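During the practical work, I worked with a single protein chain and the tokens that describe its fold, as given directly below.
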Amino acid sequence: MEEIGDGSHSGRVEDSDGHAIAGAPAINSLSGLTHIAWLSNRRMIGAWYGVEVVGVAAHVNPGANGVAAGWGDTTVSPFILQWNEQKVGNIRIDQRVVLDFDLPTGEYQLDSNVNLSSHAFTVHPYYAITAFPRKNLETSWRIHYLWNGTNDAHPSDTPSLSTQAGQAIHFNATTGYGLPHGLWVGANGYFLKQVTAPRVNGLSIANSPEQVGAIGPGAVWASKRYLLYANAYHEFGAENRPEGNKVVLRIQWILGK
């Protein structure tokens, strides 16, 4: 089980050429996530089988466009495979495969331009790997594919009958060095790129796919039953989306230890 707090400030909105859009408002947001995962004692293709659920509450303020606060969409996974630690040569590795589904359960109002739910079903599988190439050195990667469904119920003041966000590939990565007393410090980053164009009323929108990268410092403190994470990110290379800075704090509680 873990609790994750996320705060971000996006001072720019970038166009398809990566240039700031004049007059676009700054966007500030706060969110809190509760993540519960369970692994059974049963194995499938050599891995422990499990499930997970993630609930989120958020507050988003994009300036004059309005404010939204409440529950966001729910993520559920009926399929987690977690393998035992293995070795490739002298490198220890841990691996996990997860099939997530995002359910449109969040706050959504037809008379609002700012909503916390996408009002669309998504499929979100990922593969995660952590490698320890030498003592006190680790690197972790999580590679996602995101398929977005169609939103057929748009706000009443827009002419669109339906929208569908572009399909995307994104990854998170960290590199850390272990210090005494369970402390790890290092760098972290992420990158997202839509590989298909968003669609409005079933038609692709030219020069509209999003992308963004980010990098920053991070730290983890581990005890027997708890892990505390702190990560900061500075975004760059944004196209067709906001660009700014983000801070993420996470507390992980390992049950059964």
